[in-house]
Amino acid sequence: MAKKKKAVKAPRELTRRQISHHRQQQRRQRIIFIGGITVIAAVILVILAGWLTGEYIPFHRTVLKVNGASFSTGYLINYLEMAGTTRPNTTLSQLAGSAYQQLAQDELMTKAAADLGITVSKKEAADAVRNANIPVTDGAVGFVRSLMLRDRLNSQYFGKLVPNSDNQVHALIMMLESDTQAQAIRGRLESGDNFTALATQYALNYYSKNTNNGDFGWHPVAIYQAQLGSAIPVDYAFSAGAGDFSQPLNDNETYKQLGYWLIRVNSRPQPESANVSALLISDVVLADGIKARLEAGESLTGIADKYTQYSPSRDKHGELGMMSQTDNISDAFNGYVFGPAAEVGKWSNPIRDENYWSQGGSWLVKVVGRENNRTITTDDRNFLINKAFEDWANRLWSNPANQVDDSYFNSDIQNFVIEQAAKGLQKPRG
User: Which domains, and CATH codes, for the chain?
Assistant: First the structure.
């Protein structure tokens, strides 16, 4: 018996109104979907913008260009962290400027060293940083690389320029304030007084006063030049014979931390104020002579223009004008001007002041011994090698082929670098 076929219903057609409603519903769903994507995208963009402005851009901003090589803020931050690690007793604020300059010099040095055939790879430096349990950053690697490169330059290049032996002298040297004082001290030495004892008491040059009591020991000429800062005593020491003792050697160029005030209080309107004329003179003998000339009526202007070594006095031709106790020139100066000893209208006797520097003095040099081709000590060789390196490095700045653009570095960037480096140093290491 044949089965009955089920009747197939034709799909129900939507009315025009139903079609319109369906299409509206689809459009609403698309709008909601697109709106959701837009909101998500906006959130992502806000987050990305915050990351760019707060994290990426500040740390990737160019702060230095050297011969086309660019260095970012982040690099400088890590570099400053390393500088702070090696100099823990110096604040980052004090180090920031010098670290920035050192970074530029490192790049100049790297290129110049390569021209000499001396290099340190980034991998070598990175390994050294890693072995020191320091985070391996570009700045840290650059800092360590420069130290390694300097050592390599000294051992492979500059060390070969410094001889192992040279002509040397052993000399006793001190600088006195004037030829007159030097002649008096020389007379005492000729009578048997001890050179180092008198140098301890009277010497004005740094090494004789603070380091060796005037006994310099055996050194080549370059060491004496570095320690004395004047060719006058050095030339004598290396031209005289063993046992020779110089007459006073006048030096009008070298500075000493000593001067003598001549002060006249012209008027005193109030106990705490005064109208003042003043000169700072190189030595007491000259000051005595100038006081006599002033009291004899010689022009203060002409004398001040020639002799005073205090720049405000020179600029004002000796007339400092009205001053108060808050104008603290020095204890010696203020102690006289606002003390009971000052007589209005009269010049003071010379007043010794060790707070100010004055130019001029006189040297005494006694040659204890001299020897040709004497072996240079390790300390002296190291000094001469380092000096050769420093002279070479300084010349890199004056080479017109080297281009350094530091126009990117301002106070805002410097403060940011210091702040971030301080945070970096607070993080635990190792």
Answer: 62-162+387-426 (no CATH), 165-256+359-375 (3.10.50.40), 259-356 (3.10.50.40)
- Name the helix (H) or strand (E) containing 242: none
| Distance in angstroms (rounded) separating the CA atoms of residues 275 and 263 | 11
Question: In the beta sheet, which residues pair with residue 353?
Answer: 259
Q: Where are the beta strands (DSSP E) in 91-198?
A: 165-176
Quickly state the pLDDT bin for 424 (edges 50, 70, 90).
confident
The rounded distance, in Å, linking the Cα atoms of 154 and 152 is 5
Nearest to 245 by CA among 185, 202, 201: 185
- Residue 380 CA to residue 186 CA, distance in Å, equals 30
**The dihedral formed by the CA atoms of 194, 195, 197 and 201, expressed in degrees to the nearest 10:** 130
pLDDT computed for residue 425 by the predictor: 85
pTM for the full model?
0.79
Q: Using one digit for the tens of pLDDT, what is the confidence trace for 295-334?
A: 999 999 999 999 999 999 999 999 999 999 999 999 999 9
Query: Which of the 8 DSSP states describes residue 211?
Result: T
Number of CB atoms found within 10 A of residue 390's CB? 11
Number of H helices, E strands in the chain: 18, 11
The answer to whether 119 and 113 are in contact (CB under 8 A) is: yes
Q: Does the pLDDT at position 177 exceed 90?
A: yes
Pairing of strands 249-256, 358-375: antiparallel
pLDDT reported for residue 415: 93
Over residues 212-237, mean pLDDT: 98
pLDDT of residue 59: 82
